[in-house]
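User: Predict the complex with adenosine-5'-triphosphate.
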Amino acid sequence: MSVNLQVSNLTVTYGAIAAVRGVSFSAAAGEIVTIVGANGAGKTTVLNALCGLRTIGGGAIVLDGEDITALPPHERVRRGISQVPEGRRLFGRMTVAENLEIGGYTRSDRAEKRHDLDHVLELFPRLKERYRQLAGTLSGGEQQMVAMGRALMARPRFLLLDEPTMGLAPQIVDLVLESIKRVNREGVTILLVEQNAYRALEIADRAFVLESGEISLTGPGDVLLNHPQVRSAYLGFDG
Amino acid sequence: ETVGPVTDDLGVVEIPKGQPILIGGYSSQSGGDTNQGIDELRGAEIAIGDAGGSVLGFPVKLIGEDAQCTAEGGQTAASKLAGNRQIVVVVGPSCSSGARVGAPILWNVGISSIAFGATSPALTAPDRPDGFKGFLRSVPNDLKSGQFTAAYVYDKLGLKTAATIHDGSPYTEQLVQAFAKDFTAKGGKIVAAEAISPSDTDLRPVLTRIAQSKPEAIFSPVFVSSIGFLLRQKQEVPDLKNTLIIGGEGTFSANTIEAAGPSIVGFRIVGPSTDLFSSQFPKFVEKFRSEYGEAPIGGFSAYGYDATLLALDAIKAVGKTDADGNLYIGRKALHDALMASKGVSGLTGTLTCDANGDCGAATYAIWEFVSDDPSSFSPGTNPKRIYP
Amino acid sequence: MTFAAVTSSYRLERRRGGALAEALRIGLFGGLAAIAFALVGAYTIMDGRPVIEGVLTLAQTVLVTIGLATGAFGARAAGAAPAATRLAHGAAAGLLAGILLAALVLLVSSVNLRATLVAASPALVRALSFGLGLASTRALACLAVGGAMLGLAGSVLTVLPPVARRAVVAGLAAAVAAGLFRDVFASILDNVPGLRGLESAIFGFSGVNPAAAVVLCLAAAALSVGRSALRGRALSERSIALRKRIGLALMIVAILALPLVTNAFVAQVAMLVALYILMGMGLNIELGLAGLVDLGFVAFFAVGAYTVALLSSNTPFAIAHVSFWIALPIAVALAAVAGLLFGLPVLRVRGDYLAMATLGLGEIVRVLVLSDALAPVLGGSQGIIEIARPRIGGLVLNTPADLYYLALAIAAIVGLVSWRLQHSRIGRAWLAVREDEDVAQALGIDLVAMKLLAYTVGAAFAGAAGAVFAVLIGSVFPHSFQLLVSINVLAILVIGGLGSLPGVVVGAIALIGLPELLREFGEFRYLFYGLALVAMMHLKAEGLWPAHAKETSHV
Amino acid sequence: MSDVLAHPSRGPASETLLDVQGLGKSFGGLAAVRRVDLSVARGSVHAIIGPNGAGKTTVFNCITAFVKPSAGIIRLDGARIDGLPAHRVAAHGVARTYQNVRLFESMTAIENVLVGEHRRLKSSFLGVVLRTPGHRAEEAEARERARAMLDFVGIPHRAGTLARNMPYGDQRRLEIARALVGQPKLLMLDEPAAGMNPAEGHALVGLIERIRSDLGVTVILIEHHMRVVMAIADRITVFDQGAVLAEGRPTEIQADERVITAYLGRRATAAEVEAVEHLSEEASIAEAGAA
Amino acid sequence: MTAAAETKAPGPLSEWLRRSTWVDHILLAIRIVVALVVLVGLVGSIAADTYSAESWISFIVFGLTIGSVYALIALGYTMVYGILRMINFAHGDVMMVGSFAGLFAANALAGAGVTSALPLLALPLILAAGMAAGALVSIGIERVAYRPFLHVRSLAPLICAIGLTFILEYSARGLFGTRNRAYPGFGWMEGSVVVFGITLQIVQIIAFAAAIVMLAGLLAVVRLTPLGKAMRAVAEDRDAAALVGIDVARVIVATFAIGGAMAGVAGVLYALVFKQITVFMGFFLGVKGFAAAILGGIGNLGGAMLGGLVLGLAEALGPALLLEGFHIPAPYQLKDVIGYGMLVLVLIFRPQGLLGERLSTKRA
Ligand SMILES: Nc1ncnc2c1ncn2[C@@H]1O[C@H](COP(=O)(O)OP(=O)(O)OP(=O)(O)O)[C@@H](O)[C@H]1O
Ligand SMILES: Nc1ncnc2c1ncn2[C@@H]1O[C@H](COP(=O)(O)OP(=O)(O)OP(=O)(O)O)[C@@H](O)[C@H]1O
Ligand SMILES: [Mg+2]
Ligand SMILES: [Mg+2]
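Assistant: Here is the predicted structure with adenosine-5'-triphosphate placed in the model:
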């Protein structure tokens, strides 16, 4: 079960503005790759382009040797790409249970799904308490858990996470990061966008810095963690 | 104004040799009254066809405009026709509201108009404003039909109580009022005066209400769809099983039979009465069907035919050609000729115009449907004339 | 249809087959369009109406347009393929369309379909056989080959350089427009002294003369080439501004002079357009700014009209006999009160619920006005007639042209008021309410007050329109206040561009003016109106003149 | 600049600006908030922290009349504001931002701020229609103030940008500007630092500091970024399961065993150590900032 | 304010007065006025004693019959609306198309002798024809009025749907002519049965039963099938739905097809009950169906059913029940006033309709 994602020369524009310009990177199977960048650098845009929510202006996306650039989003899900989107995007008028269940929409293996569901509820026990509540009425943090769970239910091979710890209490942040690592250990390749750059870089195998839509730095996670430029601009350590 | 051999106070239309004589037409071609308007203009087309498509050796062309059934529609369509100086005469419109604003606009530029559907008595009242001087109509006005119906129900049938139903259109409302007025004057009693809307499909509640007052007859000059629902649903209201329903001439068509199905049998309508009507009408319907793929929907196509007949006759009477073969028609002369129309045998009877522009045959009869087979429609046999 | 409509961030695109398959698909659609055109009966009727005298009838014009469009789209589907391929694809598409139409003719001539399809008549076969013998092989071949030729011609358009393409299209459009709008142009020529002779030179009895058509075509093409040449040159900012100003001045002159140089019909249409502009500006306050969907808008129009009728009619229904100038403000005030009364019950109703609630209220008003119950007061279905016309001194505003100026003056005032409101705290508060009620309220905006104000102001504008309408017609009938009016006003707003004042004007011209001028289509007018609605939305979904994209700087 | 934005009614009338007593809110069977008492001192920055779903946002919603509390009394400056419709609560001087940014998306930044000024502007309908001099002057003033406010929160260059096209961080600032420009007594920020990286969070701390000191506005903020909270809060209230778990000065709170258990989590010991270390690191930064 | 005053619980009235605004007062006044009018009307009508008990029962039966037609239309409306937030203004005309397709099928079947040979088989075939035609037209509407505007925030779909209303009506007029078409009956359907002393037409029972069957069927689809789940997901957030692997385009087409098929069924059943159809019948029935859907709470299937029946009952019973007491002439002319008036009143007090969920306000 090896996944290899190859992005070359990705360009995305909004009207006249190029939000992402010529971005190329790759992720090998089993890696955690982190994208760091300021507000508006284009991180979300890159993720959306990867899962097909943005029509791209140029470039190619190749998954396991197959060019998926022109595929619609749902086809990409079937090929193992899953996203925890920015702002969670839950189905607010469905219950937590239904949200999780629909996460496995593309799958037909009932027993396996059942197993994965238990897994998710074990990961986030809070969701068990809120199991029949409408997702739209959950607190911010609870919603984030559902979003994670929903993406996991698709049993992705390649998981895109857009600020998964946003709005989470510190104790849950740990939990989420821990679960990301765990999911990764199970063989899922991870592309992580995170404002909490410190924690993100800690767990990253490789990382790159996005600045105004272009990659400005790239390297192993721990190297970037100690890179002076990163430390001053994204970690808040002056000097 | 003098053009060629013709001098006329209101102006002269010059038609070069080989060009068509233009007759304007305006009627309801969209909205709820589409059927009526289209029927009428098609009737007009057939009249032109029957004249061989030409008068005095000149081809005749009908320019139809949509006036809907509203005042503003009539106004717009009439202004459009009035703007075309080649138009000799106009037939239409379908509705009194449109005629009220449209006719003066046309007369203002010297064009006479002959309505085929606007039945409001005010339009041909002796004290009508000058703007209406150019207005004539081939359809009789509401008062006459009201009088006739009242006389039939009260005097002939000896019924003392009646109910009325109109559909909120000025036409049916006026008919119902005219009937009620005469019926009460004779000593009868209107026990229920109800109204529906043309878009209603379920009339059983209204009928149930009417049934409470046990009228001996119901007069309802509504149009084909509504009469279809009314007749069919009457069967489901036990107290009305034997009540006589009398409709208006708007339903004088084969389509009424189709709409009402088996319940049509015994349905009586007030319609024009002459023998001519009976002999010519089936041929007209046949022509209509072969031309347009369906028979007339309501009863007004014949008035469209007759209005056009009057127009063509008048043109024939006043048109003058010069040496080059160009045709000249004086507008005032044409108007005078129209007003002087006399004894024209039209589809609905013998047409004679009175001083106020009423040219309708004005003799009525009661017709009764005797069979529910739409193809049996043929005035005389089905419906059968039962009075006088 | 709320503003909170769910939208996707990406387009759902159809996967396309090969270019030729695509071309044939377009050919299929072209053929079906032509068949539909014939089978609804439009062909036979429009065949009697010459556009270019003796050369082209209206029906043929539509058919030719379908053919050209089929070819052009068929060729375009081939993308950047070599010109020969594109021409071939265009011709193939056209040929397919032609064959389909020929098949229809064959079918209609051999099987009697009239029990189901009333227009499948011998007349149709006659018309589509072009005098080459009823459904003869020659006639059928002519249809098929004609389709291919037209398709080819259409595809030629796509391979031409843009300048040439624009010129050809402009030329053809000019010739057809001249024939189509003959009456309007003829009346202008007729009204301008010295041009009368020109009228008979250019126009025949119902269309344009062939020679004149050729001249017009060439002239328009030349003009188009000239414009293209001009466009190519870089213009200084000042000259652009100057041109804009000249354009604006010309437009104002044209608007003011319109009824003077044309006839009563054009004035009448212009008048209706002005009325709908008034109503459009009213609904723009409610819907465009405050986001309150209102499908009962016609009720305010009715209140205005009936108020004037009751105050200045010459019938027993009148409760007073005052001049229009006194009745007008009263009508506006009463309409405003009606707006307030409408607004109150539906304050907490949102989105589509609001649409239905207002539709219901509008229908209630119409039914009441029509009803026998209120007939003693409002005239019922017989309406109220003999409404006195406005006078200025001794001058009676009687003709549509006079009333057009009246409506125009009122529209100008209303436009100014709208503009000022829109660019004030009130307008901003409306926009805020439209965007997010909760947040607006949390910022201290009194939702109730702002919504009621929107209803009141919008209704007042509609009331003014109704007042003018009453004197224009000289009578009021309940049948003038149908749901369709509300729908039309709504469509004007959307087609023009929600929240945009010039949009209202453009929208009204497009939706009220054009159909009136398209009366030639007779009983098919509404069919073409529907097609135009769909087409316009497809061309510009955000409206013909959208509210300013206010963005001035980015990043 | 600050004179345009200056707050007219400064100076304490009483110590307590916001006083919440016995606030309760339940959704169906779920008691999201139970008998919460909260009092916020004038001129302070008061932080609310607590696990996800503890009811923090719900308290905000109750105060701003976004939802109707099931029980309790809320006073602002001594006046009862519970039960009033939202716009009247705003009129008493309460403004807020939202956990998920809620801007008027198809309006530009400056228009968003101008809407925030609505309450301050007094032009009447007639004034607007007739374009009276008073109205024109007010309008010009309002624009100037709006620009100054955009400047104050650090996004003057975005004035003409449509709100929906702005990056997230700028949207958050714009939301603060929109809330502030109406001259509230109390500004309520719901997770203002969410989605910001630590460096940006730092800048936010400076902004809040200036809101308090330059504009004299009392601030309540909900936040999960401890770094921000510790750096700026005068007092902290900790919520857990809809009730107040603890309240005190930051140093008291970070030492509170219950808070550490409920909020920072007790899982692997290593993680706990790390978390506490993290916390003290934040605190030292906060102290450095305060000095 | 002293502590003592505080602790004393304020009376509910004074508390209400403190919280309420003038709008609340006016709404209260409206409530009282309506209650009074209804009361006076009721008392007056009952005092007038115009109608017998049988008549009242008939009114109820009539109301339920037309109500089930409204409900059938409303179901399709609500279905499409619930998923796509689009008022498909052309829905009524889809119904008209379905009705005509059913008519042609019926004529063909009668011509082929199927109707007389197998009368029970004919009905499903005719319904199938109506459904197929409705679904096809509806898919066309999706293509023209919906798909191109998926990514824009505009009222364009509404305007296109209005345009399509004209196109469908006037095309049908040109194609089929304007005449009223009689719908063929089937022998077994013509009669009536007597239940508890009430005479019921068999077609009325069929219409009512069909509405319930369709409701159940739709509920089953939406609640139980994967397609239904996907529909609800698409309804909420299209992007998110795509992210969990749902083919959004397919779901939308399926929704339109189902909605169109519902309209087709409604068209055929309408025609069976009322026996004649015309090309212009769709518009007003469509508006009524829309009203019923809103009344019940749009997007809610059970609500559509309830809304249709309530609206039908209001129209049939309202004039007799309320207006009779005021001695208003031609009360049935005002049935729309009652129907729409009731709609507005319901919305005043339940802005989300009878069974609708409160329009989800975004969470703060
Ligand atoms: N729909 C849109 N229309 C126009 N511009 C947009 C749109 N969405 C994003 N942008 C712009 O594109 C750029 C990149 O945005 P993006 O959301 O990808 O940033 P990001 O790195 O995810 O930021 P954040 O950390 O705030 O989430 C920004 O400048 C933003 O303003
Ligand atoms: N409208 C609602 N209906 C039902 N339950 C709700 C509603 N709003 C909030 N809740 C519940 O109330 C509880 C408190 O929610 P609240 O949003 O106040 O939490 P919070 O403290 O702000 O959490 P977070 O830090 O995650 O934002 C949660 O369990 C949530 O699910
Ligand atoms: Mg982002
Ligand atoms: Mg929260």
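The CA atoms of residues 42 and 292 of chain B lie 8 Å apart.
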